[in-house]
Amino acid sequence: MIYGSMHEAIGRTPLVRLRLDAPDGVEVYAKLELANPFAMKDRVARHIILRARNQGVLRPGAPIVESSSGTMALGIALVGRALGHEVHIVTDPRIDTVTRAKLRSLGCELHVVAEMTSQGWQGARLERLDELVRDLPGAFWPQQYSNPDNPGAYRELADELRADLGRIDTLVGAVGSGGSLCGSVRALRRTLPDLWAVGVDCVGSALFDQPDEPRRLQSGLGNSLLPKNLDRRIIDEVHWLNDREAFEASVALAGEQQIFAGNTSGSVYRVLGDVAARARPGSRIVGIFPDRGDRYADTVHDPDHWAAHRLGELEVSLSPEAVDYGTPVRSWSRALIKGGVDKDQHLLFIESNTTGTGMMALRSSAALDLRPVLLTGDPDRYLGLGETGCEVLRCDTNDANALRSAIQERFTREEIAGVTTTSDFYVPAVADLAEWLGLPGSPVAAVTLCRNKALLRAKLAEAGVGQPRFAVVTAPDEVADAVAEVGLPCVVKPADDSGSNNVLLCRTPEEAAVQAELILGIHTNVRGMPTARTVLVEEFVDAPEFSVEMFSRDGVAECVGVTAKRVAGAPYFVESRHVFPAWLPTEDRAALVDTVTAALTACGVELGPTHTEVRLTADGPVIIEINPRLAGGMIPELIRLTTGVDLLEQQLRAAVGLATSLAPTRKGYAGIQFLIPGREGVLTEVGGVAAATGIAGVEQVRITGRVGARMRPARNAYDRLGHVIVSAATPAAVDDVLDAAVAAVRLEVADEPTGDAALPRASAGH
Questions:
Q1: This prediction's pTM
Q2: Which of 604, 646, 648 is nearest to 626 (CA)?
Q3: H helix runs in 166-321, sequence order
Q4: How far is CA 529 from each of CA 433, 523, 577, 601, rounded to the nearest angstrom?
């Protein structure tokens, strides 16, 4: 294969079957990451640098600085120099002469610290690196120990193993930064949930709660500090080898398997022998071999070096001693980690909606033994936030890099259980963060597709899924042709807003042109995000409206139920009443579910709740929109009342990788009626709430409008003043109770005072 640059030759490394004594049918393989241009960290360097360039964090020609004593330095040098960057490497006296020569020949600037600090050589190197970052304008620090793009780089390695072997039962890997083993295990467990992960460390390393001995001789694994990328929760078993055992294993690897490698590969080789000897017949075991032996010719593979460091005086174990996790060890030992690492688990919420389920979700985290954290740019937006007991991390949630920095600085990876949101606008950001952190989630492309209705329309058309006729408009002069193509009346709406905002039924070309120009002129949405500035002109489908509530797991969507919907206030499309479950003939329900299932499959949605709005025409269902998140409008509460299924809890469980259950435990019907202003004016008084609450069947009466605020006939969901939720035995009874409760609520409206334009609107936005 021919490549245009050396960094393109990274990856696709060989897989070699090892000759080891093992039970019949046990297969043991070495993934030769040492066959990359320099070593395994080439993958990390390429992934981190390319991601940083794509995100604008690393500008063309800007310097790159990193702390490394070996393979990461070489990877940064390879990729950075190939892409035209100045590269500065901070290292320590342990750097071998081969690596030093390679780095200098590649054109890197080396900074060798003179002595270690109280936190070992790594601490001294990080202090020097901080100075460089301050002194070099625009410098980019890959931060291999805390940047989740380090473990993220090993998704490609996992894909290669899957392609070559299919099934893998055990993966063995050395642990230094935590990237290679943790990243590979996470990626493999998406399809191999029972994969057994074995970490290999060295005696004198603090990674797995052992006493730190900074003067250990091994390099490439172990650490005096706990890297943020290390997630010990996903490692099942850990082995420690002392310097003599690791060096002897490296020599044995060369003699027995003809693989000339460093001490990390040697240690993995030694552990593979033990794992294979204990394996069940038919097991398939893979070890990751990170580094070639040329860097270790005058250390690991040099008897004089052994003698100078009196390695012969160290005790040697021919097989590992099984110890309890936390027991100090001096020679080859192994321990099971399960239960040994006890860290608070945080569920990160990226913003929230403002209409009830958002604060409910934060409170619900406690029931799953999770600590909720709300990342937000404006905590004051959320009424009742202080009562949830969640941690608030303030940052610019509209900036992907700011979000990543906030998370990277605040948390270690093993403290993060999941990431989610209850806000429509932040679903793509959550998908991006989940991918970055290796957490459960739907693909970024899938949720981005659903959030942009213009992209969605194109995908559904390609898949042959029923939908209205449509045309996409990005400039005012395109509107006339779009209307002519779609026909009148038509619906004109933004491609990427929420809550029926700026959705209008237009009966003339002139109305459509005015509405399209309005939408095209809006540069930011209610959350301050840039809009797509794209308009959809769609056929008006005059047919009953429903929403289909689905929940996907591993790409398979299951129907939770169908909601009957009413809208009010034409020419606007503000939802006024929901009843769940919809009373439908069996064949109609099946048609709705089949259509939505086909749409979700076409979009590639893999995990979590979706809320799809559909109209049921005489010719079959047509998709109005797909929302790749939990239904709004308090529909989850209707589902809980009628089935016993708490969809909000299931969303949280899915976000952290826990099992979910959608099995109903009760039957019934429930409904919600939104309180919608009948005219413009000022809300002067709210009454009748107690009377409405006292009506049999009423579950909740909530007023969100504020006395003294302006109100108007609803043009979007933000104009609603509150809601009433009821439950009953039949759909007809639900309607009757809703009608009675709404009649009992009294909303007094007065004309707005002349000249007082500063009065606030009645309802806070989403």
A1: 0.91
A2: 604
A3: 179-189, 243-257, 263-277, 303-308
A4: 17, 8, 29, 28
